[in-house]
Amino acid sequence: MNLVHVIGGRGGLMFTRAKIADAPAVSFYFEGELMSGREGDTIAAALLLADEPVLRNSFVSHSPRAPFCMIGNCFECAVEVDGIDGVQACLTPLREGMRINRSPTQPIKAKTA
Ligand code: FES
After folding, report:
1. CA–CA distance, 104 with 22 (Å, rounded to integer)
2. Among 47, 54, 70, which is best to mutate for testing ligand 1, by the most ligand atoms less than 8 A from CB?
């Protein structure tokens, strides 16, 4: 599985693939937009590398939420995949043709970068 490492971040998010950067491309849709990740990426890794960190909003404050732990503990990465809500993006391998949306259980107020 490819890992995403933070290599910087002052003033913004910066990620890179730890390995397998030349793995075959995998096409998927996020919010209806055709995107490309790599074989071995999780959904969260592919979206972070595509500069799409906001996957849902907080239940309480409605503030934008992004993947945090990347190991399945925090549920900040919950998305809708092929019509199924609550899928943990950090644990779910990217597959060809997946249709991924921000979690519809909370409205998204704003996108941050
Ligand atoms: S990022 Fe924490 S559960 Fe996915």
Report:
1. 33
2. 70
